[in-house]
Amino acid sequence: MAARHIRGIAVAASLAVLCGCAPTGVTTGASTKTATTFMLYTHCGVYETRVGDTFYVAAEPLDDGNGNPPPGWGNPYQSGTMTVDGPTAIFRDDVGHTVTFHERSAATSFLRTCS
After folding, report:
1. How many CB atoms sit inside 10 A of residue 95's CB?
2. Phi, psi at residue 10, to the nearest 5°?
3. Please, is 89 exposed, middle or buried when counting C-beta atoms within 10 Å of its C-beta (0-12, 13-18, 19+)?
4. Which of 101-109's residues contact partners 24+ apart within 8 Å by CB, and which partners?
5. Which backbone phi and psi does 56 adopt, to 5 degrees?
6. pTM of the prediction?
7. What is the pLDDT of residues 57-110, one digit of tens each?
8. Which of 19, 72, 84, 96 lies 20 to 30 Å from 39, alpha-carbon distance?
């Protein structure tokens, strides 16, 4: 009985790896309308993000004019949720912030590096 249970767990784990499923809900560019917990990097403002292997750029970049996150945002991260729907990702938090990001097709790195 225990061997069958272990085999069942192994099969489920294999299927999760094959389908790209992750316990955190982070996607790899696939369309999912499920909000998943997300830590948005905000240290130099809100300009771009990465979800799984996909890079996104903010529709409306946000900063304080001095290369920092706007007032009311966490630094270096803002906790919230990310919802990916095709080429669009939307970040929301409990404070009421909402940022829409658009996929950068074929991107392999961020546009800029924050120091």
Report:
1. 11
2. -65, -40
3. buried
4. 101/48, 101/49, 101/56, 101/57, 101/58, 101/59, 102/56, 102/57, 102/59, 103/29, 103/54, 103/55, 103/56, 104/48, 104/55, 104/56, 104/57, 107/54, 107/55, 108/55, 109/55
5. -130, 150
6. 0.72
7. 999 999 999 999 999 999 999 999 999 999 999 999 999 999 999 999 999 999
8. 19
From the CA atom positions of the chain, what is the Rg in Å?
A: 17
d(CA 82, CA 60): 16
**17: enclosing H helix or E strand:** helix 2-19
Residue 79 corresponds to which amino acid?
A: S
Q: How far apart are CA 43 and CA 81, in angstroms?
A: 18
- Using CA atoms, how far apart are residues 11 and 79, in angstroms rounded to an integer? 33
